[in-house]
Design a protein that fits this description.
Layout: E1 2-6, H1 12-23, E2 30-32, E3 35-42, E4 45-52, E5 57-61, H2 65-72, E6 88-90, H3 93-103, E7 110-111, E8 114-118, E9 124-127, E10 138-142, E11 147-154, E12 157-167, E13 172-174
Parallel strand pairs: 3-7, 4-13, 8-12
Antiparallel strand pairs: 1-5, 1-6, 2-5, 3-4, 8-9, 10-11, 11-12
Amino acid sequence: MWYVIQAQTGKEQETADAIERVLGGNGYEECFVPRREAVWRIEGNYRIHIEPLFPSYVFVKTKTPEDFFLSLKKVPKLTRILGGDGGFWTIEPEEETILRNMMGENTDRIVRCSLVTVDENGDILTAEGVLSAYLDRVVKKRLRKRSVIVEVPFLGKTKRVQLGIRLKDDEMERA
């Protein structure tokens, strides 16, 4: 199963690297930060960069969560956050399925931008890629910024997640 560890915002990958460095794979199968392609508009050009899908969270796949949780106390960056029982949660099977679908077969755990078509009113007519399965969950669209916000279940609540989009004629540069 997947579990989530709270980390300092902006230090997610650093936290995952610290876990890997200190624990070296003992007690868990995988430690990762789900990320997404996001679009910046710079001088009229669109540029894709990568940022965390869920800021402040690191994901871990383990079969022994209790042992792993105790091992986390050895990681200096996490000792304060993990005081008590806070900072470590279970991802429910439905949530894991949605996240796996969003990341697809990418071993790099990156949610890619979706190609969309829109009408003259700016309504999304079709979507390819990740967004095609979540069009009914879109709660906000920002076409100019090339993103949409979708609602997905996360840690037992509904969480709003930003996904990158692109239009047919967009020329995108990679950062």
